Amino acid sequence: MEKPVVLKTSKEDTAPAQPALASKSSRRWRRSLGIAVALACLAAIAMVAGLYWSEPLLTVEHKPGTADVIVVLGGEPTYRPPRALQLYEQRLASGIIVSGDDDGNDARRWLEAKNVPETAIRLEPRSTNTKENAGFTVPLLRDQKAGRVILVTSWFHSRRALACFRKAAPEIECISLPTIVDRPKPHWPNKYEIKMVLREYLKLGWYWVRYGVWAF
């Protein structure tokens, strides 16, 4: 009776392929994790830098001068109306336009309570964003033949606001005199404004892509 033939196999023939595949998958995972960590670090550095240098990056402030009208943008009730009042009391303009549908009426009433005559205040009540602030306010400026206006908004919003008004009415000279008392001290925005400052960088990019408003 013949003995059965036993075929000899090497260790290489019997070794499973799974460890090699697992090793390759592990390397890909570590590489992906490293890229994700690097991107997160870059984003964190950019965020910190954007906050630290937020004032010089986002603020546009011109030398004060007389104008036909002061335009104060709604959306922030604590610092913007008082800044507009300060400039009005310095007699830099004889009238104020309050632009914005959110808190425009509140700002108008606040200014009237501070002895600004009702006849000196005009309300633009339809705008819901900065582009509309400019788009809906410019016809009012042209209606009263304004050649020079003072823009009042938050310091971190001043660059985008100025760019929107210049695009909407290149024939009108705009003086940017934004809020002062809420400026970063010495470099960092206050807790109330940190989120708005970070969002402002995103909005600057969005306005460039969506509306062609380049603010720099």
| Residues in helix, % | 40-55%
Strand order of the largest sheet: 3-2-1-4-5
Mean pLDDT, nearest integer? 88
Structural class: alpha/beta
Count of helical segments? 8
Biggest sheet details: 5 strands, parallel
- How much of the residues is beta strand, in percent? 5-15%
- The domain count comes to 2
Give the low-confidence spans.
none
Query: Can you tell me the CATH topology of the largest domain?
Result: Rossmann fold
Oligomer: single chain
User: Which second-level CATH architecture of the largest domain applies?
Assistant: 3-Layer(aba) Sandwich
Coarse shape: elongated
Q: What is the CATH superfamily of the largest domain?
A: HUPs
Count of distinct strands: 5
Q: What is the chain-wise order of helices and strands?
A: HHHEHEHEHEHEH
Radius of gyration (Å) = 30 Å
Assign the CATH class of the largest domain.
Alpha Beta
| End-to-end distance | 96 Å
Descriptive overview:
- The chain is an alpha/beta fold.
- The chain folds into 2 domains: about 20-50; about 55-180 and about 190-210, 3-Layer(aba) Sandwich (Rossmann fold), CATH 3.40.50.620.
- The protein is about 50% helix and about 10% strand.
- It contains 8 helices and 5 strands; from the N terminus they run αααβαβαβαβαβα.
- It has helices spanning about 10-15, 20-50, 55-60, 80-90, 105-115, 130-145, 160-170, 195-210; strands at about 70-75, 95-100, 120-125, 150, 175.
- Strands 3-2-1-4-5 form a 5-stranded parallel sheet, sandwiched between helices.
- Helix 6 crosses helix 7 (about 160-170).
- About 35% of the residues are buried.
